[in-house]
Amino acid sequence: MVFFTCNICGESVKKPAVEKHYQMRCRGNDKNVSCMDCLKDFYGEEYVAHTKCISEAQKYASQSQGFAAKEPRNKNAQKQESWMDIIRTILDSSEYKLTPPVRSAFQKLQSVDNVPRKKAKFENFVGNCMRMPRNQATQVWDILEKELNKMKEAKQTELARAKAEKVAEIQRQQKADAEEEEAPPKKKAKVEATEDAAVEETSNGIASDFDWAAQLTKIVTKQSEGIFLEKLRKKLLKKYAKHLSVEELTEKQDKKFQKRFIKQLKLADSLQVDGDLVKIAS
C-alpha cells in the first residue's frame, strides 16, 4: 500500500483516502501530496498513477558502499499490477463508450491497490468499500472481464505465432543441415575424380599411365649392389611428380602413390626385396 503525506496539512494519508482527505480535511485546496517512501511530489491527479514504490530496503540501502537491495519477487503483486493495467487500458480506450458514472468508478479503482480479481469478491469489495451500487458493480465487472478475455486471446495468439516461428526455424535449420551433409560427399567425389584424372594425365594433356615397372627397374639397375627401399621411394616419387607436371603432390595423390609403390614393387618380377634393400633379381 502506498502512503502519501499531504503537503498542505502534513497528515499521512493512504492512497485510497486521498480523495476523501481533500473533500473533508483540506477542502478547497488543490491536491498536493508526496510519497512517504520515494519522497516524490504529486500534483492534482498525478498520484493516481503511483501504484508501486521502492521498498524500505531499497530506500536505506547504502549505494556508496555498492550495496543494492534486491527487489522482492511477489507474483501476487505482478498479477495485481497487470490487473491495474487493464483498468488503465479501459479508461484510455474509446471502444467501451463509458458513461460518466462508470468512468468515475474506474477512476476510483485506479487509486486502490488491492482490487479483487474474482467477480463475487470484486462486487462485495466495491459495494462495501466504495459504496458502489450492485448493478453498477456488475456493469464495471463485465467491462473488466471483456477486456481481460481480449488480452488473453491476444496473448494466446502471440504465443501461437512465436511457437509457429520457432517450429519453422527448426525445420529450416534441419533442412539446411541435411543439405549440408549431402553436399560435401558430392563435392568430395568431384574433387577425387579430378585428382584421379590428373594422376593419369601428362603435362601436354594426353592421357598416359605411369610405367611403374620400367621406372623401378631403371632406378635399381643403376645401383649394382642394390638400393635402400626409402631411397628408391624418393627417387621414384620425383619421377612420378614430373610425370604429373607438379612440384609437390597433393595429400590425395601422395596416398595413392604410396599404395601403388608397394603394390608395383611386389609385382615387379625383375626386382628382389631383401629387407630394406631392393636388388635386381638373380
TrEMBL record:
Residues 33-60 form the Zinc finger C2H2 LYAR-type domain. The keyword Kinase does not apply. Pfam families: zf-LYAR. GO terms for biological process: negative regulation of transcription by RNA polymerase II; rRNA processing. Residues 170-193 are annotated as: Disordered. Transmembrane segments: none annotated. PROSITE patterns: ZF_C2HC_LYAR. One of its GO terms (cellular component) is nucleolus. SUPFAM superfamilies: beta-beta-alpha zinc fingers. Keywords: Metal-binding, Nucleus, Repeat, Zinc, Zinc-finger. PANTHER family: CELL GROWTH-REGULATING NUCLEOLAR PROTEIN, CELL GROWTH-REGULATING NUCLEOLAR PROTEIN LYAR. This is Uncharacterized protein, isoform A. The lineage of its organism: Eukaryota, Metazoa, Ecdysozoa, Arthropoda, Hexapoda.
